[in-house]
Amino acid sequence: MFYWRPEWWVWTSCIPCPLQEADTVLLRTTDEFRRYIRKKVFCLHLSALKSPRSKNPEEPLVADRHSVINRAVMKPELKLQCIQVQKIRYVWDFSEKSFRKVGLLEDSNSCFDIHHTFGLGLTSEEQEVRRLVCGPNAIEVEIQPIWKLLVKQVLNPFYVLQAFTLTLWLSQGYIEYSVAIIILTVISIVLSVYDLRQQSVKLHDLVEDHNKVQVIITIKGKGLQELESRLLVPGDILILPGKISLPCDAVLIDGSCVVNEGMLTGESIPVTKTPLPQTENTMPWKTHSLEDYRKHVLFCGTEVIQVKPSGQGPVRAVVLQTGYNTAKGDLVRSILYPRPLNFKLYNEAFKFMVFLACIGVVGFFYGLGVYMYHEVPPRETATMALILLTATVPPVLPAALTIGNVYAQKRLKKKKIFCISPQRINMCGQINLVCFDKVGSELSRLGWA
């Protein structure tokens, strides 16, 4: 039960305390579903790094004055408190008394800050700090072990109720019907686990190449260095020598380039990116660029197909976001953590199940009264009353729904239609018309953007 109700686990095993002292945090979504998530707070120790760190509270650890890292480090302990929520890491900000996202440059940086704070690259020491705090620049999809998938399926409340019902029926000699339901249930669980495992493997293979790109960066005081893209951190200077698949989100500061953004927008027409202007105002760079800030940004997963240096030096960009904070990371997270369903069909189905359960409760008490009136032994009275209670909710229902969905997926797959959310298949029967759109072209021209 604690697996499905994490708030109960927290309420029964933890005591309230100030947020900055907590070792377990209970989070609740702000949408209409108000779901709870339990997360453990963990610590990162900067003292474990190779390069020595200053314990002086007045001396910043990173050059960026806007960075949350400077406000999150506890001195002289040199440690940070962190939580990881849906692949995104947050650190405790002692100034704002809240958890703040890391793995990206702050939006409060101005054009001047980006050019002059990061224009020469980061030092090796600052890179080391940011790698520890922000984590690797990798979009890693875990292939879930089969035993974990099985546990998740078996812990479903429907299957728990089904196990209780079938145990009761078998004890009363309903052998053939119970065995038939058990066989159907086992088949449905195996098919469901196999399908989930296959989807996990495919998604893992799809994003794995993103983590194996070789890039060239500029290190302050040392010059150019080639390294794996998973070692990139926000603030690094990325050199764009020519064609390259971008492993992070970055803002262009020198030169221009032509980018294929088809992976993100579906547009087949390449987009020209221009460098961020060098202005001395203190306005945040996105506000300064207004709606056109995207023309300076190179998004993760897109492909640079042509570069044009503006002077003697190469085309350069400052790394903005890494890992799951990037545009491609958001896309993968939307697959890993889809929005819950709130279709009318499911709401009405749940109400119907509650109605059946209420009938079962009425039958339970009625049977209890009748058998007690006729002075039937207590053991037999309880058994027969429970059979009346369990007979109202069909125990074969979850297995039938699962097999139906799996069969529907197989049929769709033959038509080269792939589904990442099988629960939505039932809704497809109500669709009469599907419109496909090239983002930013036809709809913008028609005024529907």
UniProtKB/TrEMBL annotation:
The catalytic activity of this protein is classed by the Enzyme Commission as 7.2.2.-
Q: Which residues form the Cation-transporting P-type ATPase N-terminal domain?
A: 120-164
Which stretches are transmembrane? 177-196, 352-373, 385-408
Q: What does the sequence similarity comment in the record state about its family? A: Belongs to the cation transport ATPase (P-type) (TC 3.A.3) family. Type V subfamily.
Give the primary localization class.
membrane
Describe the location of the P5B-type ATPase N-terminal domain by residue ranges: 2-93
Question: Which species is listed as the source?
Answer: Myodes glareolus (Bank vole)
What is this protein called in UniProt?
Cation-transporting ATPase
Molecular-function annotations in GO: ATP binding; ATPase-coupled monoatomic cation transmembrane transporter activity; metal ion binding; P-type transmembrane transporter activity; polyamine transmembrane transporter activity
Q: How does it sit in the membrane?
A: Multi-pass membrane protein
Keyword Coiled coil tagged? no
